[in-house]
Amino acid sequence: MSFLDGLNPEQRAAVTLPRVSALILAGAGSGKTRVLTTRIAWLIHCGLASPHGILAVTFTNKAAREMLARVSAMLPLDPRGMWIGTFHGLAHRLLRIHHRDAGLPREFQILDSADQLSLLKRVMKNLNVDDEKFPPRQVAYYINASKEAGLRASKIEPSDFVSRRMNEIYAAYDEQCIREGAVDFAELLLRSYELLVENESLREHYRRRFGYILVDEFQDTNLLQYQWLKLIAGLGPSPAAEANAVFAVGDDDQSIYAFRGANVGNMQDFTRDFAVEHVVKLEQNYRSEANILDAANALISHNRGRLGKNLWTATPGNEPLKLMQAMNDLEEADYVVAQVQDLSERGIGLNEIAVFYRSNAQSRVLEHALFRAAIPYRVYGGLRFFERQEIKHALSYLRLVANADDDGAFLRVVNFPARGIGIRTLDHLTEFARHRNTSLWGAAVARAGVRGREHPSSLMPYPTSLSHAPRGVEGFVGLIESMRQGCTGVPLPEAIEHVIELSGLKGYYENERDGKDRVANLDELVSAAQGFVQEQSELSPENMLAEFLAHAALEAGEYQAEAGVDALQMMTVHAAKGLEFHSVFITGLEEGLFPHENSLNDPGGIEEERRLMYVALTRGRKRVYLSFAQSRLLHGHTRYNIASRFIREIPEKLIARNAPYTYNRWVEPARGQTSATAEADAPSAWKLGQAVVHSKFGYGVIVNMEGRGLDARVQVNFRDAGVKWLALEYAKLTKA
DNA sequence: CGGCCTTAATTTTTT
DNA sequence: ATTAAGGCCG
């Protein structure tokens, strides 16, 4: 078979495995996606499975799209029979089909994280929870973690007063979700899981259907996702005699989502639960040149408890990694710009060059420098299209049209654009709604004295001219009613256009000083809907709106994808997973930033950061540039950092430095050097950013100072001992 | 009620 | 630095 050509023996073995469960340990750049897609093509080609019988789960929408594209390229078939998608996407698909069995309204909506938080805040306000003691974010975390552990509020035994209260909020939150017909991300998984647990015939149906299940990025699955898989594969409450074949592909060294519940342990559990006999290791890397791979291997060897895998390459290459020590973040950015220009002049396309950073906040300075140098760039991540406020507003109107009980959507747009509905009015509506156990919309309708949506014929007339948009609750109710009428039987893009116009959103932003982009985005939303309708042509028109709204929540989306434009690629390291580039810049390699300070506290945090660094390194094919800055403006204040430990964990012989080099002055003092005390130096000698040595804590950098003379204290960021305040009078501090 | 102002808090990563 | 929330005045 031609598509088996060019596979190495291990890849071929994996692709052609019989109908058994298997774990594929696929190192970075070892052809993982190729193996997955070829496996699907092979199964279908050999008649072992029909497209209908294949379930392929990926972690990102992008990966799902790519898989679909590559499979369709290999086989002349309509790929729509296959279920290929993300966990959330597939769970959503199940729930849409079986919404009745799952106890959900037909038009249920998906809450993204921001929606979830605002709903939660409302619930907490109702319960009079002190949000000082219970920060909504933490409560949200508790709820999500509980759901990911498969636990409903009723199943949790509170151990203390705090968790009792948390649990009360959790229960109230879920009730409110039901009332509004809203489902958050974790709920998609939990509810579809429960659907299958409780409904044996459904479970049997899907188990029989999906004889072959393939999972990408298995190391990133959480507990609930793994249970979900087991259920569909036939290892549920009433285990089938023979479980389905689960083909799990993963790399423990690239597990970078433990912070949100991913459980690498699933890999070991999997081999046990599915009695896996075939563990295939893909260890040949086809991506990076030897030096880069050596660096990555050396770095990751500092982690303990790995499954054990040794990546090698047949590609030679001794181009050293380049390391730049910059005075500050501006200089670092200039360095990146200069190097990018150099690469570009050598004929490397900008699309083939990527700049990575640990957190989104770091992109700003880089962007500024690139802009000045007139280098086109594209930033991935950051504010997503569907998360922009004007888009959220427009979607909220649509959500109200689809499902009037959506209080979140109601609150978002009831007074936007302003129509004279203030806090007082809303308090009344809220009170009324609570009293009558109805939604805010129900309360508004009652107050406006208009019949509900069951009787659209009794609409009050609504002016099409917007010169004097109706105000007050009546005006709003009339507006939504006429939107609802204007949207029925109309193609989705036109319906959206209608809503954007009628809501007054467009007019509002047209009159705003900086509203140009927002108007453009609203137009873009219509285009997005057009694209969506074309792609989803098999959907029935009445499902189209709900599906589009779900799509918006599930795929926050790279809609401004300017494919074809040659632009430098900028992204967080997380966003870089799965990609590869000719040249890669890893910036901000500083203690506290990368590894991030927040990761230092939790167990395994450093190892996850190291895996993140490993991912970053292994993205590069030919060249890797490392950089760090001694000082950096962050959150409006200058921070003084020392070089990341990850730099030291790469063998020196693989690195070329930008200057005679001192590792940010971590050089051991010459033997016998006199160690002066603090008092011996003039007070003015201590400056921010000064590198110092402490007899006990070792090497560090002064990051803060206060007081004078004998009272003077300095804050030092130590390489190994963390950040400490020291009294200069007593501390044995030496300039390094 | 609504807009404008000040103030405070926030920031790791994202499906 | 940016943004969310809170307070004040028209």
Structural Rg: 29 Å
- The helical percent reads 40-55%
Q: Give the low-confidence spans.
A: 450-467, 660-684, 707-711
Strand tally is: 21
Identify the overall geometry: globular
Q: Which structural category do the helix and sheet elements fall into? A: alpha/beta
Major sheet attributes:
8 strands, mixed
**What is the straight-line distance between the termini?**
65 Å
Number of separate helices: 27
Strand content: 15-25%
Q: What would the average pLDDT be, to the nearest integer?
A: 84
Q: How would you sum up this structure in a few lines?
A:
The protein is of the alpha/beta class and 736 residues long. Strands 9, 10, 11, 12, 13, 14, 15 and 16 form an eight-stranded mixed beta sheet that branches. A six-stranded parallel beta sheet has the order 3-2-6-7-1-8, with helices on both faces. Strands 20-19-18-17-21 form a five-stranded antiparallel beta sheet, with no helix packed on it.
Topology:
Blueprint: H1 9-15, E1 22-26, H2 32-45, E2 54-58, H3 61-74, E3 83-86, H4 87-97, E4 109-111, H5 113-126, H6 136-148, H7 161-180, E5 182-184, H8 185-198, H9 200-209, E6 212-215, H10 223-233, E7 245-250, H11 265-273, E8 278-282, H12 290-300, E9 321-328, H13 329-345, E10 353-357, H14 363-372, E11 377-379, H15 389-402, H16 407-413, H17 423-436, H18 440-448, H19 472-487, H20 492-502, H21 505-511, H22 516-535, H23 541-554, E12 568-572, H24 573-576, E13 581-586, H25 598-601, H26 605-617, E14 620-634, E15 637-640, H27 645-648, E16 655-657, E17 691-694, E18 698-706, E19 713-718, E20 722-727, E21 733-735
Parallel strand pairs: 1-7, 1-8, 2-3, 2-6, 4-5, 6-7, 9-14, 9-16, 10-12, 10-13, 11-12, 13-14
Antiparallel strand pairs: 14-15, 17-18, 17-21, 18-19, 19-20
Helix pairs in contact: 1-2, 2-3, 4-8, 5-6, 5-7, 6-7, 8-10, 12-26, 13-14, 15-16, 15-19, 17-18, 18-19, 19-20, 20-22
The protein binds a DNA duplex (15 and 10 nucleotides) through helix 4, helix 17 and helix 24.
